[in-house]
Amino acid sequence: MPEKPEVITVSKALEKKILNKNITDVQIYWDNIIAKPETDVFKKKIRAENIKKITTRGKFIVIELSNYYLLIHLRMEGKFTFRKKGEERNKHEHIIFTLDDKIELRYHDVRKFGKMYLVEKEKLYTDTPLKDLGLEFDSPALTSKYLLDKFKSKNKYIKTVLLDQSIIAGIGNIYDDEILFRSGINPYKKAKELNEKDCDRLVQNTRIILKKAINLGGTTIKSFTSEEGIHGQFQNELLVHGKKKEECPNCHSQIKKEQIDGRGTYFCEICQK
Questions:
Q1: For residue 146, which phi and psi values (nearest 5 degrees)?
Q2: Is the pTM of this model over 0.90?
Q3: Are 21 and 50 in contact (CB under 8 A)?
Q4: Which has the closest alpha carbon to 4: 217, 179, 238?
Q5: CA 153 and chain centroid, separation
């Protein structure tokens, strides 16, 4: 699933091609991707909207239109392609936006898990899906004290809690493993057992890792690409994720992979006691 660096990479790629374009039409071939409003209402409201700005919030792409915000969550395998108007549709292209330059922005999603929301501007942060998101990784409010407060009642493994989007928005399974490894924290440790030094390391390494991943265009794993022909490079920087039975770069013991609350988790038992 694309995480914060990948979502930023996608948004930047889109910004280069669709900023200031008008949406003249939209075709929807899989209704469930439209989370809200209803499909017919979505079609009616988005036609003639101008694309003014593209940002992100957590794992959401946030596209500011003339009168609304279009929020997009790519989920497992969602991505965008560009085609000339009228070009034959691939069976996995489920949403097609026609722009005023006769170019089509197509949403491609093999698993059909992605979601789109059209939200009124004044309700962007007070309505779903953004209202319950936690802090961004680069927010000044993200401090060790903030994490201590959030963790103090959490009896779950830190591996699981770090994925909680209501605490830090944008962290997924890949960066979770990398942050915990570089912080020297075992994924099985209960969140409420972390002290201020642990939390300080988490904050610092979250910022370091995500900033570097953003600069490198994210991590290309399995089917993720930000756009046709564009791949991230951060996978070359991964120290533990996806490294089952390889040597730990620090102590040279074997990296383990175990399931923690249903998530494949990579870690070093020696460096993350």
A1: -60, -45
A2: yes
A3: yes
A4: 217
A5: 26
